[in-house]
Specification:
Layout lengths: L2 H18 L8 E13 L6 E12 L2 E10 L2 E2 L6 E14 L6 E16 L6 E17 L2 E11 L7 E11 L9
Antiparallel strand pairs: 1-2, 1-9, 2-3, 3-5, 4-5, 5-6, 6-7, 7-8, 8-9
Length: 180
């Protein structure tokens, strides 16, 4: 066997063994989607209302999420200029074990964000990382509500962007496993 084939066999065997001995044996892969409403703020933009759409795949606490978001135009420090933002996150999230229909969430995302000023024809494009902590509540078997705080850090901005968003999700399944 070639080296690549041997490594593939070893990695696949390792992943299968880890899945059999982890929570993954108790909950399969699930798809979920949702919508969110919140606010965002930076040093040069007033508080702006934001909305987003979320799609994700999860397996026993770990999730790969894709989020598209946008905002309304709001005023800046210059009273003649309004700005809005839009962008996307792709991130890896971890939700703690659900107890009493509650959990905590931690997420790191690669984020692209564009700012559109009313006085310039071009968008100001940025790229960076977002760090999220959140709290979730189970609404029913296939619905949940999460309140997230995200901090967007980019070398293109002098200060980060703060976002607080409430998201409502459909899909996924109720956690059936037991804590250790």
């Amino acid at each position: 066997m070639k080296l690549k084939q041997s490594l593939l066999l070893i990695i696949t065997t390792f992943v299968l063994l880890m899945s059999a001995n982890s929570h993954a044996g108790r909950q399969g892969i699930n798809f979920y989607y949702g919508i969110g409403l919140g606010i965002s703020q930076t040093e040069f933009i007033d508080i702006m209302p934001t909305a987003d759409i979320v799609f994700g795949f999860e397996e026993d606490g770990w999730a790969l999420e894709g989020i598209a978001f946008g905002s309304l135009e709001v005023g800046t420090d210059d009273s003649t200029v309004d700005t809005s933002m839009m962008g996307s996150h792709i991130g890896l999230a971890y939700r703690t074990i659900e107890t009493n229909n509650n959990w905590f969430k931690f997420k790191v995302s690669s984020t692209k964000m564009d700012f559109d000023d009313s006085d310039t024809p071009q968008d100001y494009k940025t790229k960076g990382n977002s760090y999220t902590i959140g709290y979730g509540i189970r609404m029913n078997r296939e619905a949940r509500l999460e309140l997230d705080y995200s901090y967007y850090d980019s070398s293109d901005l002098s200060e980060g962007l703060h976002m607080i968003i409430a998201r409502y999700f459909w899909g996924g399944s109720e956690y059936q496993g037991k804590a250790f």
